[in-house]
């Protein structure tokens, strides 16, 4: 447990963000790279030392100027997928709310990041899928150059990765829901249940297709063929995992539509705890870095105690706050943050 | 005061070097300066070699491989199996496959792969030439050795579709070539594995 103590605006969140960026090559705060740089500069450099016994320590570095450079142990890495998830980051931050009530794209992003932390192959499928999708959309916009036969050829690649993504996402929802039974009881009390519902949205063919790999492949290919004329008119692919929906339900109630602010907060915490437990079960639990920022103020005392107990089970915790919470009684390292620097 | 510059002739050479892949301004400078130190005879030979590059090497009229005559050495070789054709993206990949020593058939160079994001469609590839060769009926197996990435896979599917009606077997090299890896960097053992483990498309 490490506390980052400092007043607001002193740079605590920036430190968490830097750690998060080293794990996932993206920010939890913004998708605009310029926001990450210290004004008036337009570049940044991050260095990290990763220690995870019994593996030898590893250095990770990112520099972002006119282009992004990635280094592992000082050797350049060219594929982002080889750099991402060298260590696993789980956040408990205000932005987590988006995974319950944010726009569909942000709920999908939670899903994709979470699965990539559990399954190293997932990111490759995701990247290949998006490359094939972008290519397909480019062909739909230039039908003179790319006859339907070229699109059919890309469809085979698209379907292969789409099906892998579908299956991984469905399995993820099943595993999460198994754990959410206990987590919802802890956070909401005896009677209420939070569940994740994954909706394929692969077009009306697949809305309810529960099939295995082979069935999914058939149904999805059929869906693409069926939607071809419409896709051609709109110049974009209308069905696929990029249109899928992840919904959170509390007792059958769609939270992003009908939940109260408090319920959505609790549900997002339940989701994070469920994910943390999944990661602890499947990966080396000590490889997890937990980032906490500004979330426990909203919890009552009993839940705060639960929260801290649950966190402390394993891994490294970076806990940003203005002062150490009363409920925390164990020993911890305390780092004072002021003016963007760690004070001795 | 104007910054001091290299003499024009030296700058000229540097600007050519910097057009090469992977050569930045600094390396171009180093290369050109190193050449300044060469004996005159050597630079003359180098110039001569560059002239011959375009005069003496051209694409093979049949397969697209590098050739010194109308046909390349492989197309001319009477000992090659004429019933097997291996489709590659670039002529440089033929050398890699040849060095593995495990392939005795013919080749066809596509000149790239289907790449909608950079505007490369079937018309920009040597697919018409491939069709002509296949329709002659001598080929009984076509092995597609395009790269294992998204564009290479899609190109393989496209070729398999286009020529599905012809009386021949269409196969794809196995992914003994590690996913995402380039045929250009694979070693002989890997290539032999990929060729022997090919599967029907
Ligand atoms: Zn030839």
Automatic annotation (TrEMBL), chain A:
Top-level taxonomic group: Bacteria
Cellular localization per UniProt: Cytoplasm
Keyword field: ATP-binding, Cytoplasm, DNA damage, DNA repair, DNA replication, DNA-binding, Nucleotide-binding, SOS response
Gene Ontology biological-process annotations: DNA replication; DNA synthesis involved in DNA repair; double-strand break repair; SOS response
MF terms in GO: ATP binding; single-stranded DNA binding
Protein name per its UniProtKB record: DNA replication and repair protein RecF
InterPro entries: DNA-binding_RecF, DNA-binding_RecF_CS, P-loop_NTPase, RecF_2
Similarity comment: Belongs to the RecF family.
GO CC entries: cytoplasm
Organism in which the protein naturally occurs: Oligosphaera ethanolica
Binding site for ATP: 6-13
Described purpose of this protein according to its UniProt entry: The RecF protein is involved in DNA metabolism; it is required for DNA replication and normal SOS inducibility. RecF binds preferentially to single-stranded, linear DNA. It also seems to bind ATP.
Principal location listed in the UniProt entry: cytoplasm
Lineage, top ranks: Bacteria, Pseudomonadati, Lentisphaerota, Oligosphaeria, Oligosphaerales
Keyword ATP-binding: yes
UniProtKB/TrEMBL annotation, chain B:
SMART domains given in the database record: TOPRIM (SM00493)
CDD domains registered for this protein in UniProt: TOPRIM_recR
Record GO terms (molecular function): DNA binding; zinc ion binding
InterPro entries: DNA_Rcmb_RecR, Rcmb_RecR, Rcmb_RecR_Znf, TOPRIM_dom, TOPRIM_RecR
Domain Toprim: residue ranges: 83-178
Reported function: May play a role in DNA repair. It seems to be involved in an RecBC-independent recombinational process of DNA repair. It may act with RecF and RecO.
Entry protein name: Recombination protein RecR
Gene name tied to this protein: recR
């Amino acid at each position: 447990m490490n506390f980052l103590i400092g007043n607001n605006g002193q740079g605590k969140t920036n430190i968490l963000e830097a750690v998060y960026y080293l794990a996932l090559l993206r920010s939890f705060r913004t998708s605009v790279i310029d926001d990450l740089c210290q004004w008036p500069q337009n570049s940044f450099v991050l260095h990290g030392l990763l220690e995870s016994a019994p593996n030898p320590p590893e250095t990770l570095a990112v520099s972002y100027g006119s282009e992004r450079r990635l280094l592992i142990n000082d050797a350049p890495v060219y594929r982002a997928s080889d750099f991402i998830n060298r260590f696993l980051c789980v956040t408990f931050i205000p932005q987590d709310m988006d995974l319950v009530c944010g726009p569909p794209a942000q709920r999908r992003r939670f899903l994709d990041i979470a699965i990539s932390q559990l399954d190293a192959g997932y990111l490759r499928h995701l990247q290949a899928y998006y490359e094939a999708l972008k290519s397909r959309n480019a062909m739909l916009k230039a039908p003179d150059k790319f006859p339907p036969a070229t699109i059919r050829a890309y469809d085979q690649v698209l379907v292969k990765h789409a099906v892998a993504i579908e299956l991984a996402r469905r399995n993820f929802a099943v595993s999460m829901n198994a754990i959410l039974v206990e987590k919802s009881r802890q956070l909401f009390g005896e009677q209420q249940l939070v569940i994740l519902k994954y909706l394929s949205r692969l077009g009306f063919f697949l809305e309810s297709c529960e099939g295995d790999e082979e069935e999914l492949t058939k149904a999805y290919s059929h869906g693409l063929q069926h939607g071809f004329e419409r896709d051609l008119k709109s110049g974009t692919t209308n069905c696929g995992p990029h249109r899928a929906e992840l919904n959170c339900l509390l007792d059958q109630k769609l939270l992003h539509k009908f939940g109260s602010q408090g319920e959505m907060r609790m549900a997002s915490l339940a989701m994070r705890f469920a994910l943390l437990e999944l990661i602890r079960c499947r990966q080396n639990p000590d490889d997890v870095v937990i980032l906490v920022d500004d979330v426990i103020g909203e919890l009552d005392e009993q839940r705060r105690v639960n929260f801290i107990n649950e966190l402390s089970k394993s891994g490294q915790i970076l806990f940003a706050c203005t002062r150490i919470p009363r409920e925390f009684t164990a020993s911890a390292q305390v780092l004072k943050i002021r003016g963007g620097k760690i004070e001795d | 005061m104007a910054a001091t510059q290299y003499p024009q002739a030296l700058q000229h050479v540097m600007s050519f070097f910097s057009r090469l892949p992977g050569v930045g301004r600094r390396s171009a400078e180093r290369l050109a300066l190193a050449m300044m130190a060469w004996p005159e005879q050597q630079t003359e030979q180098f110039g001569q070699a560059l002239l011959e590059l375009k005069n003496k090497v051209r694409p093979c009229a049949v397969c697209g491989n590098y050739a010194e005559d109308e046909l390349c050495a492989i197309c001319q070789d009477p000992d090659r199996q004429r019933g097997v054709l291996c489709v590659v993206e670039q002529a440089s990949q033929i050398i890699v496959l040849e060095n593995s020593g495990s392939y005795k058939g013919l080749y066809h160079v596509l000149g790239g792969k289907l790449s909608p994001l950079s505007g490369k469609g079937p018309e920009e590839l040597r697919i018409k030439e491939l069709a002509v060769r296949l329709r002659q009926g001598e080929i009984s197996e076509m092995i597609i050795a395009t790269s294992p990435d998204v564009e290479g896979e899609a190109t393989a599917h496209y070729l398999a579709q286009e020529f599905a009606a012809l009386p021949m077997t269409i196969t794809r090299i196995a992914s003994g070539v590690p996913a995402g890896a380039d045929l250009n960097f694979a070693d002989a053992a890997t290539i032999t594995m990929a060729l022997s483990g090919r599967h029907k498309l």
